[in-house]
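HUMAN: I'm a chemist; might I ask for a sequence paired with its structure tokens?

ASSISTANT:
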Amino acid sequence: MPDADELVANALAAVRGTDVRLAERQLDHLMVGTGATDGTTAVDAALLRRLVRGVARLWPRGWQPVDVDRITSRRLDARAARLVRDAMAAQRRDQAEPVPAWWDEQLRELAAEARSDNDRGVLAAWSAREGLDRADALRTAVDALALVESLPPIAVLRPPPGSAGAAPARPAGTARSGSPMLDRVRALLAKAESTTFPAEAEALTGKAQELIARHSIDEALLAAGADRGDVPGGVRLSTDAPYAGAKALLVQEVAAANRCEAVWSDDLGFTTVLGWPADLLAVEVLYTSLLVQATSAMLRGRAERRAGSGRRTKVWDESFLNAFALRIGERLRAATDAATDAADQAAAQTAGAERLLPVLAARGEAVRERLDTLFPGVTRHRLSARDAEGWSSGTSAADRASLDVGGGRKPRQVPGRPDPR
């Protein structure tokens, strides 16, 4: 009779193949276990051990807990994601090497907590919480294992556990999320999301971007004065279906307005944003809010469309969201430019007036160098806008929802991006 590890390996190989009946037979073998008194418990422990080893191998390959949780939910389901959280918690429990504070913060946010001191009871406890019978529990566990072991390497944005620099007091590329400025920005954006008056949303979002731009400039000058030798960091934002391309475009536009670079990984369901700590935090907060505003405006626009127009909703929605993203980007950049000009003029009144623009230029170059290092083969992706009515409505919605804080310029036309004209 095969041992537990061999049974798990056979089931995994069958799931990866195309023979459905073979996969079911191997699942039956897992159900039976090794034939020993504790044969089924041994199978559970073997499954969890291999799953724990699988997630541990992901960390040096660029994956973070939130990334693994996101893709498990995307490709499998919430139940499988909760099992993987238990595996990540078990792996963290046994992690002897240094672990950065932000890593534990991610696990806490995912509610990934070790629920047992050994591997034998974890799978049974998880299946009981989920209300699964043994066959469904084993099937889900094998599917989760197959996914975890199939994930490709991605960019390493922060030192993973056990690596050099894994546990500094404040990791490079991170920013405080509880600053008074950020609290004010979140409050302004919450009001912009909830108001039914477009002019009010415009003013609130404009004020938020103005605060963000001023704070970014202050942080840039402070960091330059301290000469800490940091390098730009990165975050990954979900750009999953539906309308993944439009979401990725919105991230790109918000990132560009805040001196960041963005790269979309369509097959993995996220966009990586590279930049300095305060700017990355700004992109996260703004993207989340503007996605809410864009979705609300799109749904209102749908309701206002002429009945019986014959246009497909999906095509209209994509055109609407693409236009919204481009228009928002134009206005966000105008707000950033206005804040930079104001800061530059203020600096002209003091000693060292020549410092601001060179500092910003140097930081921008560092972000681009980081992009070239992490994504040497990045390419442009062309998004289509096939519905003129949707495009016009999206542009108008962005005019109402975005900014008007002085200045303005025509958006830069990037290869692979639809021309708004």
Notes: The CA atoms of residues 51 and 145 lie 6 Å apart.
